[in-house]
C-alpha cells in the first residue's frame, strides 16, 4: 500500500468509505492550497476542515513519522506532539518524505494513513464542534465531506491534544 500514486489514493479512499458505508460526498473544485479558500468553496466552516500534517518526531531514542490531523482553524504545537511520543522535538516532514509516506502532494493529504510507518493521530477539537468534517481527498481538486462519527470509526486515529493553546 505504500507505493500508490495520488489518483490511486483518491480512489482507494472512496472505495474504503463506500465499503465501510460512510456517509460522505465528494466536492470537485479548483486546486487551491489554502484552507480558508477551500472551505469557502466547499461551503463549510474553516473549523470543519481536517488539516493533515506529516511530522517527524526525534530524540530520546524516538524516531517516528506521524500524520497529525487538526482542525484547520487551529495551529499545531509540535512540542506537545513530540512530548506525547516521548521525543524531544517534532518538525514537519520534507516534501519528499510526505510524498513517500502519503503518495500525495502537501495540501492533498487525506486524514487517513495508508502507510505502515505513518502513525495517525488527531486532535479532539476537530470532532467536538461539527457533525461533518471536510478534507482534501488525495487530490488538490477533490474534497470529501463526511460524517464525523464515520471518520472516527473508519480511520481510528489515536486522539492526542496537540493544538497550540492560546496564552
TrEMBL record:
MF GO annotations: aminoacyl-tRNA deacylase activity
Pfam families: tRNA_edit
Domain of life: Bacteria
Domain YbaK/aminoacyl-tRNA synthetase-associated: 29-153
PANTHER family: CYTOPLASMIC PROTEIN, MULTIFUNCTIONAL SER_THR-TRNA DEACYLASE PROXP-Y
Record-given protein name: Ala-tRNA(Pro) deacylase
Organism the protein comes from: Kosakonia arachidis
Amino acid at each position: 500500500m505504500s507505493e500508490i500514486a495520488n489518483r490511486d489514493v483518491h480512489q482507494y479512499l472512496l472505495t474504503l468509505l463506500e465499503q465501510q458505508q460512510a456517509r460522505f460526498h465528494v466536492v470537485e473544485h479548483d486546486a487551491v492550497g489554502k484552507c480558508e479558500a477551500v472551505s469557502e468553496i466547499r461551503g463549510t466552516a474553516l473549523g470543519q476542515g481536517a488539516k493533515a500534517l506529516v511530522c517527524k518526531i526525534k530524540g530520546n531514542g524516538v524516531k517516528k513519522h506521524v500524520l497529525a490531523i487538526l482542525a484547520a482553524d487551529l495551529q499545531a504545537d509540535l512540542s506537545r506532539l513530540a512530548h506525547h511520543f516521548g521525543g524531544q522535538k517534532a518538525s514537519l516532514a520534507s516534501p519528499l518524505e510526505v510524498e513517500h509516506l502519503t503518495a500525495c502532494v502537501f495540501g492533498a493529504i487525506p486524514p487517513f494513513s495508508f502507510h505502515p510507518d505513518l502513525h495517525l493521530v488527531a486532535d479532539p477539537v476537530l470532532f467536538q464542534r461539527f457533525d461533518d468534517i471536510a478534507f482534501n481527498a488525495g487530490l488538490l481538486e477533490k474534497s470529501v465531506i463526511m460524517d464525523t462519527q464515520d471518520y472516527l470509526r473508519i480511520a481510528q486515529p489515536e486522539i492526542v491534544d496537540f493544538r497550540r493553546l492560546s496564552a
